[in-house]
Structures are given as structure tokens and as C-alpha cells.
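Dear support,

Our group has been running a series of protein-ligand predictions, and this particular one with D-glutamic acid is the one our PI (initials K.S.) wants archived with full inputs and outputs. We had some confusion internally about which version of the output was final, so please treat the block below as the authoritative record. The input we submitted was:
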Amino acid sequence: MDPETNNPIAVFDSGLGGLTVVSELARLMPAEPVVYLGDSARVPYGTKSLATVRRFAMENAAFCRRFDPKLILVACNTASAAAFDELRATSDVPVLDVIRPAVAAALAATDGPIGVIATEGTVTSGIYERLLTEAHRPMLAQACPLLVPIIEEGRAENPDDPIVLNALGDYLHAMQRRRVGALILGCTHYPLLATAISKLMGPDVVLINSGQAAAAAARDYLTREAMLAPAGATDLRCFTTGDPARFADLSERFAGHVIENVQAVSTDELTGACS
Ligand code: DGL
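Confirmed final output from the archive:
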């Protein structure tokens, strides 16, 4: 049966970073029901092997399918890098990622070299390098393993925090020298550091928020397929493999508002969802 227009968009991430994508979805399509899974018990994905992240992503997607979604949005660059092709090939539900929309947005934003900052896993996968090289665009990728913990610890709120500035200064040095025209924030956590990054890179460098680009791609897809939800109130259901209270406490930082009624799901249940 074809999914109904008021079936949800299912979104998953390794933890809370994907909530930046949920807030973009709500901004662009306030009537869309959304189901969100944050796999906080197994965060970070960025330092794990691509094979492990692929397995997690397949389990997350299988859980998402329980809600009969009309679309699955992989709101994590690392999971997109590890599993997008397999997810697409095995899913009867359309799947979108965050990487391809970010590349398209960066190519449209500048004719110059493009920088990418991301987790180790995303950089190691070589996916941004492959897509940008196919588009004949010079690029530079930098893994930034300290940024997710800094953000998760709440240090991103002060763009003048010396820990934030030192880490970013180190990671962005080569990007500044290369004079990139656009810098892809290739991790859904990084929009929380956008102010500090912009300060260091200067006003001429366009920052590409991969989640924002993916939300726009989701809207374009649903519009094209005549699958947009009829007007109504936003309906967001959140699940976490971590602690629901911690998820709710930290949610405002990522989503812009406090998310209540977060439901727990165990990783055993996710493993079961896949079998
Ligand atoms: N949000 C994930 C991403 O976009 C990174 C966080 C992690 O390492 O789990 O890659």
C-alpha cells in the first residue's frame, strides 16, 4: 500500500545531532509528522568502523519502518557515509541522506574550492571527496574528532570559549590557507558551532549546513511526489536508546525547544527490529 500523505517522515541519528535536521524540517514543513530515533546508547558513530555504523544504520532504519513512514531521512553524515547505498538498495521506503544535498548546496554556493569538516568515519569513507571530485571541484576534507564531545558537553553555547576556539583554530587552519569558497558542516552536530566557525573563516566563506540542505531536499521530494501532509499541527515523536531524561534536557540546545515525552527503546530491540 502506498504511504499516506499524513504518514510520518522517519529521521535517525547517532544521538542528538539529528535534531538540528528535525528543527529544519519543522521550519520548512510545519505540518509534517516526524518520528525521530536518536541512538545515544551507541554514540559516537564517528569513531567506529564503517561496518559497525552500517549495521547500526540498518537496525535504526528497520525500527523506523515500524511507523510506516513515507520517507526515511538519515540525519547523520557518518551513517549516510557508511550505509546510504545499502539502505537505498534494501528499503521499500524512499531514503534520503544528508551528504548529497550538502554537496549540491556547496556546488551551487561557490565556484571555488570546497572544504568539508566531518567525523573521522565520514572523512575516511571518502564519500565527500568522491562526489566533489566527480563534480570536478577541488576539495579539502578535515576530520574533527573533538567537536562532537565539545558540543555534547554544552561548550558550543559560548563561541568565545577557549576550548572551542583552540579546537576550531587547529582544524580550520588548512581550510583558511586553501581559501575555500564554501565549507560543508559535514556532521549534524556542527551547526551548533556555526557562529564560532563563521568568525574564524570570515564572512566570505559560505557555511553549508548539511541538515538544512537535507530538509530542503526532503521538502522538494515530497512536493514532487505530492506527498506533503495536509495542514495541521506539528507532531513529533522521539525515541532514544539512551536516557530519555538526558535527551529531553539537552534537546533544546539542538532542536531550539524542549522535547518532552521522549520514549526509551533498547538497543536489543533495535537489533531485533532488523532480524
Ligand atoms: N551526527 C553525526 C554525523 O552527522 C556525528 C556524531 C557521531 O559521531 O556520532 O556524522
